[in-house]
C-alpha cells in the first residue's frame, strides 16, 4: 500500500474524530497531537527494549510493530494538520545504523513541528528509517497500520 493511501485513510479518520470530538475554543490540537506522538514513540522505544542495558531481556516485544504504527497514525494526522500529505522531495535517509540516534532525533524534532514544518519532514524521514532499522518492511507496516486503523474506527463508533 502506498503512503498516499494511508494519508487518505487517516484523513477520513481525522474527520470522524473531529466530528465526534469538536475542537474547543482555544484548544491547540496540534500541540496535543505532538505530545501524543512523543508518548507513543516512548511506548515503541519501551517495546524495542534495546536501550535497556540494565536488563538481560533485550528482545523486542511482539507489540513493537503495533506501537510503531500508533506513531505512524500520529505522524500522518500531524502531517495533515500542517498541510503535509506526502514525503517531501529532496530528503534522503541518513543511513544510520543506530536505533537510539533515530529515536533521539525524533524526540528532539517533534516538539518543534509546531513552528517549523521542516521538523516534520526530518522527523518523519527519521521515523521511516527507524522502521527499517527495527526490521520492518513497508508491507508489514501498512498491514499493521490498517489493522490499527480498523480498531481506531471501531473506537470512534463505540464512543471512545
Overview features:
160 residues; mainly alpha; 6 helices; globular
Q: What is the number of E strands?
A: 0
Low-confidence stretches: none
Query: How does the helix and strand content classify structurally?
Result: mainly alpha
The secondary-structure element order is: HHHHHH
Task: Outline the biggest β-sheet.
Answer: none
Count of individual helical segments: 6
Average pLDDT reading = 93
> Quaternary state, please?
single chain
Strand content: under 5%
Shape: globular
Radius of gyration: 16 Å
- What is the CA-CA span between the terminal residues? 27 Å
In helices, the fraction of residues equals 55-70%
Write a compact overview of the structure shown.
It contains six helices and no strands. The chain is an all-alpha fold and 160 residues long.
Describe, in plain words, how this protein is organized in 3D.
This protein has 160 residues and is mostly helical. The protein has six helices and no strands. It has helices at 3-20, 29-48, 64-81, 99-109, 117-133, 138-157. Helix 2 packs antiparallel against helix 3 (64-81) and helix 3 (64-81) runs antiparallel to helix 5. It starts with a helix and ends with a helix. The model has no long low-confidence stretch (mean pLDDT 93).
Amino acid at each position: 500500500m502506498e503512503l498516499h493511501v494511508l494519508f487518505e485513510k487517516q484523513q477520513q479518520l481525522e474527520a470522524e474524530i473531529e466530528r465526534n470530538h469538536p475542537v474547543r475554543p482555544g484548544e491547540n490540537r496540534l500541540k496535543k497531537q505532538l505530545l501524543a506522538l512523543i508518548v507513543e514513540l516512548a511506548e515503541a522505544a519501551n517495546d524495542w527494549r534495546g536501550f535497556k542495558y540494565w536488563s538481560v531481556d533485550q528482545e523486542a516485544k511482539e507489540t513493537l510493530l503495533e506501537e510503531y504504527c500508533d506513531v505512524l497514525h500520529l505522524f500522518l494526522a500531524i502531517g495533515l494538520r500542517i498541510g503535509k500529505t506526502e514525503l517531501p522531495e529532496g530528503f534522503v535517509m541518513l543511513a544510520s545504523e543506530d536505533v537510539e540516534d533515530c529515536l533521539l532525533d525524533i524526540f528532539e524534532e517533534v516538539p518543534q513541528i509546531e513552528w517549523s514544518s521542516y521538523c516534520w519532514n526530518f522527523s518523519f524521514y527519521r521515523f521511516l528509517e527507524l522502521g527499517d532499522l527495527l526490521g520492518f518492511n513497508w508491507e508489514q507496516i501498512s498491514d499493521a497500520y490498517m489493522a490499527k486503523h480498523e480498531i481506531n474506527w471501531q473506537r470512534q463508533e463505540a464512543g471512545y
